[in-house]
Amino acid sequence: MTTTLPAYDDVVARYEPVIGLETHVELGTNTKMFCACPTDFGGEPNTRVCPVCLGLPGSLPVANSAAIEATIRIGLALNCSIASWCRFARKNYFYPDMPKNFQISQYDEPLCVDGYLDVEVNGELVRIGIERVHLEEDTGKTLHVGGSGRIHGATESLVDYNRAGIPLVEIVTKPVDGTGALAPEVARAYVTELRDVIRSLGVSDVRMEEGSLRCDVNTSLHPAGSTEWGTRTETKNVNSLRAVERAVRSEMLRQAMVLDSGGRIVQETRHFHEDTGDTTPGRSKETATDYRYFPEPDLVPLAPDPAWVAELKAALPELPRLHRRRLQQEWGISDHDMQSVLNAGAVELIEATVAAGASPAAARKWWLGELSRRANESGGELADVGVTPAQVAELQGLVDAGKLNDKLARVVLEGVVAGEGTPTEIMTNRNLEVVSDTGALTTAVDEAIAANPDIAEKVRSGKVAAAGALVGAVMKTTRGQADAKTVRELVLARLGVS
């Protein structure tokens, strides 16, 4: 069997990909799904547990109404139908992070079904069908000590049950076919849009780095023109938007290599490796019968009141895609410019900066320019550069008032990032305000002319462009605090050039 990966363009010319995404969202409720234990992230291991989430004999679960409401709101935002009657089930399997040896989930009767989410890829709208949105409890967290951090080769394994029982919403797409070479980008766009939708609902912080949003990526290939889909693999717990795209692309290349060699794709779970972008085998994929589902006997069925569901639907916020389109029109920018804002993750930051008083153009300039550069250099998120939208608006206000020029504003920005105070405080404390005293500027101009008689003569003779050197000399004398336009006007006036 060949071990050489084919070229991506060659793969999509000969094969059609089918993808599917199973996304798990930890809800931001105050307490767990079936008990009163707190849900906040962090804390010493096994300190946020009780008999219910530890599965001790005799303990009984009680469903969290806030989690049920949040799940219905997610389903409505994804255009799903809400079940008039459904119930929980026991999903049976043994693994150390499941203290009961079963998970309370939903099986054949989910809370939300048959929805869709529209995403934009390369300017085109792609509709992703939603199979189901159901509610369950999260598992604990297993830490494999020694070796590579995985169970194979570990010297010991530790289990933290703080996360066990936290409300978890699983959102399962229908198979997505027909996307061809764009399949990896469609997968990333879907998870990105889904994250934005859930964040807009305020039901989860959807932080992938903390595990409150996790994605399993299903991928299969079949020969172009064939109506029979190939065997899928499931890449588990992909934890970044970039990794979602890379996982799909990696599996497409790997599966094509196997098929080209006459091999057979095995239905299995796989692990994605961020450092290499490759996937490796996990375990063979179970079927529903392996889990021996049966109705949860300790919980009553759910029967959401249709009037209540209608109230929840009427109270949904503006969906992110529509919100972005409205902002684009208000800001008067092109599709290309809006895509740049999206790629930088700056929509909310720019919107807040505009709300604080800056113009859309100025807000975009700061967040997509100097602040994006700083975020890229640090490898962090744009929202974590150490500057708030209100501070950016205040800084731009000082520029608009003529108290700062762009160069001085960047110096003030450094002070804000360093925690020295507000832009106004830093400008005052460092004495950075633009010199507007015409008398002082005239003196500096006269000194520059006297020190550069040859340049002054060129300007007098009609070579006005040479005045830039004199302006530069004045700016140097004033430590960049003079207004360059005013200085230029003074230079030309002193030299008798109109």
UniProtKB/TrEMBL annotation:
<keyword id="KW-0067">ATP-binding</keyword>
<dbReference type="InterPro" id="IPR003789">
    <property type="entry name" value="Asn/Gln_tRNA_amidoTrase-B-like"/>
</dbReference>
<comment type="function">
    <text>Allows the formation of correctly charged Asn-tRNA(Asn) or Gln-tRNA(Gln) through the transamidation of misacylated Asp-tRNA(Asn) or Glu-tRNA(Gln) in organisms which lack either or both of asparaginyl-tRNA or glutaminyl-tRNA synthetases. The reaction takes place in the presence of glutamine and ATP through an activated phospho-Asp-tRNA(Asn) or phospho-Glu-tRNA(Gln).</text>
</comment>
<protein>
    <recommendedName>
        <fullName>Aspartyl/glutamyl-tRNA(Asn/Gln) amidotransferase subunit B</fullName>
        <ecNumber>6.3.5.-</ecNumber>
    </recommendedName>
</protein>
<keyword id="KW-0648">Protein biosynthesis</keyword>
<dbReference type="InterPro" id="IPR004413">
    <property type="entry name" value="GatB"/>
</dbReference>
<dbReference type="GO" id="GO:0050566">
    <property type="term" value="F:asparaginyl-tRNA synthase (glutamine-hydrolyzing) activity"/>
</dbReference>
<dbReference type="GO" id="GO:0050567">
    <property type="term" value="F:glutaminyl-tRNA synthase (glutamine-hydrolyzing) activity"/>
</dbReference>
<keyword id="KW-0808">Transferase</keyword>
<dbReference type="InterPro" id="IPR017958">
    <property type="entry name" value="Gln-tRNA_amidoTrfase_suB_CS"/>
</dbReference>
<dbReference type="GO" id="GO:0006412">
    <property type="term" value="P:translation"/>
</dbReference>
<dbReference type="GO" id="GO:0016740">
    <property type="term" value="F:transferase activity"/>
</dbReference>
<dbReference type="Pfam" id="PF02934">
    <property type="entry name" value="GatB_N"/>
</dbReference>
<dbReference type="InterPro" id="IPR014746">
    <property type="entry name" value="Gln_synth/guanido_kin_cat_dom"/>
</dbReference>
<dbReference type="InterPro" id="IPR023168">
    <property type="entry name" value="GatB_Yqey_C_2"/>
</dbReference>
<dbReference type="InterPro" id="IPR018027">
    <property type="entry name" value="Asn/Gln_amidotransferase"/>
</dbReference>
<comment type="similarity">
    <text>Belongs to the GatB/GatE family. GatB subfamily.</text>
</comment>
<keyword id="KW-0547">Nucleotide-binding</keyword>
<comment type="subunit">
    <text>Heterotrimer of A, B and C subunits.</text>
</comment>
<dbReference type="Pfam" id="PF02637">
    <property type="entry name" value="GatB_Yqey"/>
</dbReference>
<dbReference type="GO" id="GO:0005524">
    <property type="term" value="F:ATP binding"/>
</dbReference>
<feature type="domain" description="Asn/Gln amidotransferase">
    <location>
        <begin position="348"/>
        <end position="495"/>
    </location>
</feature>
<dbReference type="InterPro" id="IPR006075">
    <property type="entry name" value="Asn/Gln-tRNA_Trfase_suB/E_cat"/>
</dbReference>
<dbReference type="GO" id="GO:0070681">
    <property type="term" value="P:glutaminyl-tRNAGln biosynthesis via transamidation"/>
</dbReference>
<keyword id="KW-0436">Ligase</keyword>
<dbReference type="InterPro" id="IPR017959">
    <property type="entry name" value="Asn/Gln-tRNA_amidoTrfase_suB/E"/>
</dbReference>
